[in-house]
Amino acid sequence: MKNILIISGHPDLGTSVANATILNEVARALPEAEIRRLDSLYPDYRFDIAAEQNALRRADVIVFQFPFSWYSVPGLLKLRLDEVFLHGFAHGSTAELGGKKLLLSFTTGAPAAAYQKDGFFKHTIDDFLPPFATLATLCNLDFVAPIYTCGISYVGREDTAAINTQKDQARDHAARLIAKIREIAA
């Protein structure tokens, strides 16, 4: 299996049900994968650029795991992109990331019905993905269709049944993610 790098962009996994469950399931199923939990590595949001670039260099498959935040990535992951995906490293004539696969794995708080042309947001999930596809194009990465799960929100966190439902949804998400990683890393 190729080298797998999973970058967790959740700003506080300690408060997460779904993203924490997904990462734990993936770590159990793919112990060879490198999982970089940005919230614990960089609680002060000061990245070790060399370490982050070296992790990307080693990877054949790059997974961004995150909660959909304001129709994109959380600030922690966005800042990492800004500071690590530099010209000359991630893109440009001396870029080093070409040929790697990029897979997005994310959860949304709103239900799937909200992400329809006639839904609350008036846009589908696919409508929000062009910036990611463009990042992949710029960096010569192979953009893989994302794995996502809608309807995992903070509502009902005090309700044990709701938490268990979210964990079940997260385990299902993790199973789909693991299968996709195995497929593209073969």
Characterization of the model:
- This protein has 186 residues and is α/β, with parallel strands linked by helices.
- The model has no long low-confidence stretch (mean pLDDT 96).
- The protein is globular and about 50 Å long.
- It has six helices and five strands, in the order βαβααβαβαβα.
- The protein starts with a strand and ends with a helix.
- It has helices at residues 18-29, 38-41, 49-58, 75-84, 130-138, 160-184, and strands at 4-8, 34-37, 61-67, 101-107, 142-149.
- It has a five-stranded parallel β-sheet with strand order 2-1-3-4-5, sandwiched between helices.
- 31% of the residues are buried.
- It has one domain: Rossmann fold (3-Layer(aba) Sandwich).
Please mark out the parts with pLDDT under 50 across 5 or more consecutive residues, or reply none.
Answer: none
The total tally of domains equals: 1
Strands of the biggest beta sheet: in what spatial order?
2-1-3-4-5
Assign the CATH class: Alpha Beta
The averaged pLDDT comes out at 96
H/E element order: EHEHHEHEHEH
Q: Globular, elongated, flat, extended or rod-shaped: what is the shape?
A: globular
Q: How does the major sheet shape up?
A: 5 strands, parallel
* CATH second-level architecture: 3-Layer(aba) Sandwich
Enumerate how many helices there are, as a single number: 6
Structural class: alpha/beta
Strand content: 15-25%
**What is the CATH superfamily label?**
Flavodoxin domain
Bin the helical content: 25-40%
The N- to C-terminal Cα distance equals 5 Å
Kindly state the number of beta strands.
5
CATH topology: the name is Rossmann fold
Radius of gyration: 16 Å
Pfam families: Flavodoxin_2
Enzyme class: oxidoreductase
Domain Flavodoxin-like fold: 2-173
Organism: Dentiradicibacter hellwigii
